[in-house]
Amino acid sequence: MKRSTSASWTVPQPSWLIVALLTWLLATAWIRPLMAPDEGRYGGVALAMLHSGDWLVPRLDGLPFFHKPPLFYWIGAAAMAVTGPVEWAARLPSILGGGAAAAALFLFLRRWSTARLALLSTVVLVTTPFFFLGAQFANLDMLVAGCISGTVLLAAGAALAREREEPWRALLAGAYLFAAAGLLAKGLIGLVLPAMVIAAWCAATRRLAALRLALWLPGWAVLLIVAGPWFVAMQMKYPEFFDYFVVTQHFRRFASSGFNNEHGFWFYLPVLAGLTLPWFAWVFVPRGADDSARHRQPDIDRLMWIWLAVIVVFFSLPRSKLVGYVLPALPPLAYLIAQRVLAGRSLEALLPKVRATTLAAAVVCIGCVIAVAMYASPPGTRLKLPAGQAVAPGDQVLMLDSYHYEIPFYWNLREPVLVSDDWKAAALDTRDNWRKEISDAARFDPAHAARTLVDRTQLADTLCVPRTTWLVGSNTAQLANPWLFRAQLVAVNDGLAAWRFAGSPAGDPHCLDAPLAPAPASAQSPGTHGDE
Fold this sequence. Notes:
- It is elongated, with a radius of gyration of 26 Å.
- The chain is built from 24 helices and eight strands.
- Strands 5-4-3-6-8-7 form a six-stranded mixed beta sheet. A two-stranded antiparallel sheet has the order 1-2.
- The chain is α/β, with parallel strands linked by helices.
- The protein has helices at about 15-25, 40-50, 70-85, 85-90, 90-110, 115-125, 130-135, 140-165, 170-185, 190-205, 215-235, 240-255, 270-275, 300-315, 330-340, 345-375, 380, 405-410, 425, 435-440, 445-450, 460-465, 475-480, 520-525, and strands spanning about 60, 65, 395-400, 420, 455, 470-475, 490, 495-500.
- β1 and β2 form a beta hairpin.
- The longest helix is centred in the C-terminal third of the chain and has 29 residues, at about 345-375.
């Protein structure tokens, strides 16, 4: 007897599905090095938090780094406390954010829609290349996307449950908890965006009475107890914190045109269409003939459409746009695509096509990760010290004219590095780059900055000491710094080089000006030690 095809649509238990989701997202999180600058920056800040033992203040090169709140760093540092500095641990916050978004979507739709639509929406979401890569990328976008998704779906579930006189308080408390996590993940958008979605949905579905849930005092207690202490502690310790973190990083950044990555209002439409293939192609497939097979749920449909529109429009308004900003729009888009796939089609005829699309999407996901691993590895991840050589306690590391975020992570440095640059000019730079990040951080700890930020004119004072210095710079840095010929070249690749400088045992302040002596051939060639 032929087995019924519908049996293949059996929905797994939530616990097993969540395990499968996390396994899928973790499967390739280890196979490629960290990318510059984001992954190196956020992974490095998390590792520095672990090494310093200060779990309160995020630090970039030892300086207070308040671009974003600490939740990402807390998770990453906790993971690396167990595993050491490995790539998948640095990406674990994003993986958990993706898992939270997918699990919340499945559980919400399983309760308030159909089990098949819940399963297919989740499959579409986790095999969408945009979502999969976002969950494999160590920055804050996927973590906050998971928090926003959890907040929206739990709040909507609480409103629906309250209407049906079912238990709703735990759901609403969960929504406030996710909102608190969103605040700690990326700031005000973790609270503002889900509030906008729910408010617009309540207005569109005439649930104005449900808006009173926004004033639920136990929920605000949860939010303030979870998220409040860190913000209060930072303001008390650093009086400029509020102006920098809230005013500059939220409002000025949203309204300004001086930041990088400026694009037109339309930018996210092709991004969403192109990066969700092959699933997005179903949007252009006509509905099936059997309209009765489609169970209309206008309240859920409106929630998803409003959610999608709010996220896309909100992030389309500022001139500065990054692809990852619209990751919170992917759960509702996955629902709408899954709904289109199922619309008016018999399940028996549909299953082979769904399997083929799922397989194709999964192959694209894996292919994208492999392509990124092959073609997008920054030089800093490939600049490895030769076997038998390491930065010893008491040695100093100095980066010439650029800060390479990946070096502290891959060299597992426990102390901040020195950075040489024209820091007076850097303080006036308005561009969004590594100089501005470090200059901004230096405002919060000038004493530490005075020790680690080295002006180019002060290199002799830093290097002409009885102490070994490991230098990192461009592989052509010797042209601008001839004194580097005195240092031992220990590693080189197509972008960077590393040298070991013995310093001056007598502390001669003119050690960089002495006549050059012919360097031993072994000292000037890394041989097999460099990564070519």
